[in-house]
Amino acid sequence: MPDGCRLAARMWLPLDAEAKPVPAILEYIPYRKNDLTAQRDAVMHPYVAGHGYAVVRVDLRGTGDSDGLMLDEYLQRELDDGCRVIEWLAAQPWCDGNVGMIGISWGGFNGLQIAALRPPALKAIITCASTDDRYADDVHYMGGTLLIDNLSWASIMFARNTLPPDPRNRPDKWRELWLRRLKESGLWLENWLEHQHRDEFWKHGSVCEDLSAIVCPVYAVSGWADGYCRSVFRLMENLTVPRKGLVGPWAHTYPHIAKPGPAIGFLQECLRWWDHWLKGRDTGIMAEPMLRLFMQDGVEPRTAYETRSGRWVTEPAWPSPNVQTWSLFLGGDGRLSTSHADVRPEYQSIRSPLSVGLHGGKWCSYAVPGDQPADQRADDAGSLVYETGVLQSDVEIAGAAALDLVFESDKAVAQVAIRLSDVALDGAVTRVSYGLLNLTHRDSHEQPEPLQPGRRYHATVPFKHVAQRFAAGHRIRLAISTSYFPVAWPAPEPVRLIIQLDECRLRLPVRTQDPDEPRPAAFAEAEGAEPLHIEPIAKPQKDWKVTENLSEGTVAVEIGDGSGTYRIVENDLTITSLGTERYSFRGDDFASVKGEAVWTFEMSRGDWRVGSLTETVLTATPSHFHIEAHLRAWEGNAPVHEQRWATTIPRQLV
Fold it and tell me: Rounded to 10 degrees, what is the CA torsion of 243, 247, 251, 253?
């Protein structure tokens, strides 16, 4: 880098690349190329390199084997470094001067962000499971509500930031770099909780602020079970460059290794994109429709699916000419009616217990049993519920539904959670989509305003995008609640909403079903390079338990995470990764809500062994959030560093 900092890279090159230069593909992330992503990289990157590309994995400054310090996500230094990396790649003798970027999640984010900086050699990107808006559509906040994934993700990065460079690769500097990371990387949860509205902190890195800055072609990819599918549709609608979109049934992972299936030949699809934009070959990819979606069939409610049935459909553009709005109206008898004339002027009220949301799964699913929504009947018991009659024919939706809500609140700060579900013949309720809105953000995420009790308000609550078929004989259900924990942190105190039913409307994006609609060409079967040789030692405890203590009136959700213990044979590195999360409350006491996350990491090779334990606890009063955190690190059996944090942050209408 220009300031002397050295970034570590791993490269896969065609054997004759120096004689016959090729385009370069960059993945630029903080997740440690030599260990934490080594399994995934081994399948993906040599495969693409074997088809005539130089594929390069770079550890961000302050991560893996790189020098420096990482203090937060997507800082300007990270993006400037990325531009410098692209410049360096383009100048190498094995590169023909053309560079592409690919990444999922963090790497998908900075692919968009770096594209907006226009490094001359960057000719195209593939961005997977990412967002154009870091406040409105990221792991931190949804509809102005504080997501529990904010704490979960902060605790994971808190732990990963304690890991040292590999001493085999950095024998003279690993300990120096490690100690600096331990002492200075910081507690990112503080940063994220100090910015509860859409301010300059979140606008930085949100390419939606100026999408015209992106001038290279973009391929945007996500999955319905992923947290980030909505951005694909905004990018298709608002970018002006050549672009394509792809959304499958998948959770938060690349589509060639994705669950729920079907996984696809995504690496072959990437090659079609790279060959077109980096090698000038006509692969036919740009002659195909802009957007391809997996239209899911109805399923019984389960917290994990091996595969989803359905079919691929295409759209020529977004918004699509094939999608029309179908309005449904809420009746006091619990019906969703297609005619407003059938609805009488009346209102209903709801004050949901804290238990609503226990079956809601995780904002961003990783296809781990427990993290997708279970049967919704228990959550719906504490909600207002409205249903259509039995459907006489199939109904397919594609896009984002929305609820136009007219309401009063008895508190200054309130939230609403809405769910769209498929009710089967046996009464089982499968959540299809959902939405959250902090009602103080009804008009603006930048300048929220408190509610005045007794005053009537209008708000539009969007649902997460989805493509779903509701089968004939089933019913469509809308559920409304005033809390949804542990998906989102609750309001400061219990809230009662009074809803003026006859002025509310559910808007569904109904897709025209053409019996002669041609099926798009099938994706190839998933392929990849030879897997890395991994020696499993101990399995992780990937449990998801809801425990109710009736004698004490407490409820807890306990989640096991991590990869257990395994050895990477290639570099003789043994890794332990174990995490637990716990979210709890007592009765209907909103001040009793607590989130806890604990992570243990260990790495060893021969006589060398290091490890860390990180603990994070989040609680709240009606006026403040309270963070307590603890870090311990060791080498061998000797303690190396210990640090504690205790921070109080005012709640700002959250």
Answer: -30
d(CA 301, CA 279): 46
Closest CA to 600 of 645, 558, 633, 627: 633
3-state secondary structure of 571: coil
C-alpha span between 83 and 502 (Å, rounded): 54
- Residue 611 in tokens: 């490890």
Residues 110, 112, 114, 117, CA torsion sign: negative
**What is the C-alpha to C-alpha distance for residues 53 and 183, in angstroms, rounded to an integer?**
39
Q: pTM for this one?
A: 0.98
Q: Kindly report the number of other CB atoms within 10 A of residue 76's CB atom.
A: 11
Identify whether the C-beta of residue 177 lies closer than 8 Å to the C-beta of residue 165: yes
Are the C-beta atoms of residues 527 and 268 closer than 8 Å to each other?
yes
158 burial (CB, 10 Å; 0-12 / 13-18 / 19+) is buried
Map out the domains of the chain with their CATH numbers. 9-144+197-288 (3.40.50.1820), 323-511 (2.60.120.260)
Mean pLDDT of each 10-residue bin along the chain, 654 residues long? 97 97 98 97 98 98 98 98 98 98 98 98 98 98 98 98 97 97 98 98 98 98 98 98 98 98 98 98 96 98 97 96 97 94 91 98 96 98 98 97 98 98 98 98 98 97 98 98 98 98 97 82 96 96 94 97 97 98 97 98 98 98 98 98 98 98
Query: Is the dihedral angle over the CA atoms 462, 465, 467, 470 positive or is it negative?
Result: negative
Closest C-alpha among 28, 210, 25, 193 to residue 122: 25
* 486: amino acid identity, one letter: P
